[in-house]
Design brief:
Number of strands: 11
Radius of gyration: 23 Å
Structural class: alpha+beta
Number of helices: 10
Shape: flat
Largest sheet: 8 strands, mixed
Helix content: 40-55%
Order of helices and strands: HHHHEHEEHEEEEEHHEEEHH
């Protein structure tokens, strides 16, 4: 067998073995049998909330087990194809086998990280909020670039993205925006992105072509479903309505349909203007508020995680989690994990997996390489 094929085979086998250990394979198989039996019990569906939770647990565990089985089967087929091609001197078939093994290796690496997503709300959808910092047009433009970056990352991974609220900048970009990212493990992947992001570049808005530093903050909170109880005293919440901005239907700019909720004890503010009616926006805003307050509680429990209070402090020097330098050199560096890359265009186009993976591994006490090839 060719050395490169042998190396990929060894890497995949190592990842599969690690996945089996993390799942506690024999225990996982027994648990799946138990969950299947519970789902097939008609009395379970007398309790819809419990039935949904059991069904969700079963689907997640079944997907993890099937992923491991599929990789083992595909690895065997890929190695067999590579060996046959090598014996016959068929370089085209050998390249096909290499490509197949490379795809399995990439899937194994991602599955390895997804196995770490065992937090209470990691499997949930997520709200991602971007706020521009001080600096006017520069920071608003940077906030708009971040919103595009995360939207592209989400769509590249099969997630749905919906804008819940947005306020445009005076000349460019956005002052703030909130998007809903829908799909498996959306919150688990995005949660490490909360914090201040710093950009250094030659400003396109400066006639003197001087270098500028801009800041914007990102906040991520889970969509909290009915199985998680969040107790909010309505008297602690102030409700404001206002006229929505931006494009929309015939009512969106003519009525006070947008809703802003302020949780006074924590000074947590959410807003929604995506719905066509005030009722729709109010309902969505309450969901967002529950998610934000739940995220606050999660932050308190996770001593190793960055506290939300830190993420909401001054959007400027001393608080950033990642720097994006476009001038005088090209570099994106995460200041928490030391992961860095010179592929700034790729990162700003949504290639964030290396940063998210390193932050996720760091939370559970593991390490990843510090340089992205």
């Amino acid at each position: 067998m060719r050395p490169d094929v042998e190396a990929m085979k060894a890497d995949i086998e190592q990842s599969v073995a690690l996945l089996r250990r993390r799942l506690d394979w024999d225990v996982a198989i027994r648990k799946l049998d138990e969950l299947n039996a519970r789902v097939e019990d008609p009395t379970l569906w007398d309790k819809p909330d419990e039935a949904q939770a059991v069904s969700r647990d079963r689907s997640r565990l079944e997907a993890q087990i099937n992923t491991v089985k599929a990789m083992e089967s595909e690895l065997e087929d890929g190695v067999m194809l590579a060996e046959m091609a090598d014996e016959e001197g068929d370089e085209a078939a050998l390249e096909d086998a290499r490509a197949s093994l490379k795809a399995i290796k990439d899937r194994a690496a991602r599955a390895e990280l997804e196995a770490l997503l065992s937090g209470e709300a990691d499997g949930n959808d997520a709200y991602l909020e971007v706020n521009s910092g001080a600096g006017g047009t520069e920071s608003c433009d940077w906030a708009g670039m971040l919103l595009r970056m995360y939207s592209r990352w989400a769509k590249a991974h099969g997630y749905e993205v919906q804008i819940e609220a947005s306020e445009e900048g005076d000349q460019a970009g956005i002052k703030n925006a909130t998007i809903l990212v829908t799909g498996p493990n959306a919150y688990g992947w995005l949660k490490s992105e909360s914090g201040v992001h710093r950009l250094v570049r030659i400003s396109p808005y400066d006639a003197a072509a001087k270098r500028h530093t801009s800041f914007a903050s990102v906040g991520v909170s889970p969509v909290v479903d009915d199985t998680i109880e969040i107790d909010i005293n309505p008297s602690d919440v102030r409700t404001d309505t206002y006229r929505a901005s931006g494009s929309g239907g015939q009512h969106i700019n003519k009525t006070d349909s947008a809703v802003r909720l302020t949780h006074i004890p924590t000074n947590t503010v959410v807003a929604c203007q995506a719905g066509r009616s005030q009722h729709q926006n109010r309902e969505m805003a309450w969901k967002m508020l529950r998610g934000r307050l739940y995220e606050l509680e999660l932050q308190k429990r996770e001593a190793a995680a960055q506290a939300m209070a830190d993420a909401k402090t001054d959007i400027g020097w001393g608080h950033q989690i990642r720097s994006y330098v476009l001038q005088p050199y090209q570099m994106v560096k995460d200041l928490r994990t030391e992961v860095e890359t010179s592929d700034t265009a790729g990162v700003l186009d949504g290639d964030l997996d290396a940063f998210m993976g390193a932050a996720l591994a760091q939370r559970v006490g593991e390490t990843r390489g510090s340089t992205v090839e």
